[in-house]
Amino acid sequence: MSQKNQEKFREFYQIGKKALENGKYRASIANLESARELVGFSTKLGAEVQMLLATAYQAAGKKQEAIALCQELTSHPNLLIRQKAKDVLYIIQAPELQRPPEWMSEIPDLSSGEQNKAQYITTKRKKTQNKKDEELPPIDLSQVNTEDNQFIWFALILAVLTIGGLIWLS
């Protein structure tokens, strides 16, 4: 590979890897595909680019492309890369587990323009196993007692007297 191609490869590889780490899968795929064209399949570096590309495909929802790429890498000359490709292929082809609805948190859609209105935060508490969830009423902050109960001053004076007594006795 020429010096110019090496520089291009490094640039595409670094941008693609960074994009993958940041969750920008389309940009990652585009850059890693460009990097893959500049390096040979049988090299260790070429295999590394293709493993990252398979990961980007899978993250972007292109499962078939990821599977095809991993299957291609299972015939790589390097034993370690073949094993890694088989492991990744096994993970990609694993069945997706179903999660019970109570494990999920629903995120409300705030794009409806009601962001300026004051909203109360409510919490849910679980009742017994057979009863449904019950929403707690919103808390009115004007009714909360914020008066100082003098406990801090009592604790501070007690601590000073204790430390003073220990110093005086020693």
TrEMBL record:
Keywords: Membrane, Transmembrane, Transmembrane helix. This is Tetratricopeptide repeat protein. SUPFAM superfamilies: TPR-like (SSF48452). The chain crosses the membrane at residues 151-169. InterPro entries: TPR-like_helical_dom_sf. It comes from Hyella patelloides LEGE 07179.
